[in-house]
Specification:
single chain; about 110 residues; alpha+beta; two-stranded antiparallel ribbon; about 35% helix; Phage virion morphogenesis protein
């Protein structure tokens, strides 16, 4: 049973075994992978930003400035999914936002 959208290691192992045992057509398998990314990975990323914690549950360090707002709160809006059926995978990337690392742009 999945409680709160979180999987423990045992549940993840069971999920992988179930996916491997299913004989899904390529399109249905790809759509299932996309749904796992959309409703699992991205939803978890949004939850972590909202709670200001890392995926392992540790709180983020506070701001170094006197600003009081939450950090990275617009980041989940930029997360998008690209299907990659040739390798039966999806890619989660940042779309737009104009992020830079010093003088060079950060690739998505």
């Amino acid at each position: 049973m999945i409680a709160g959208g979180k999987l423990n290691k045992k549940q993840l192992t069971e999920l992988r075994k179930a996916l491997a045992s299913m004989e899904l057509p390529p399109q249905k398998r790809q759509r299932l992978i996309w749904r796992l990314a959309k409703y699992g990975v991205i939803a978890a990323a949004k939850r972590h930003v909202r709670n200001q914690e890392s995926p392992d549950g540790q709180k983020w360090p506070g701001r170094k400035t006197k600003r009081k707002g939450k950090m990275l709160r617009n980041l989940p809006k930029l997360l998008h999914i690209r299907e990659m059926p040739e390798i039966q995978a999806v890619r989660i990337y940042l779309q737009g936002g104009g992020y830079r690392n010093g003088e060079t742009p950060v690739p998505a």
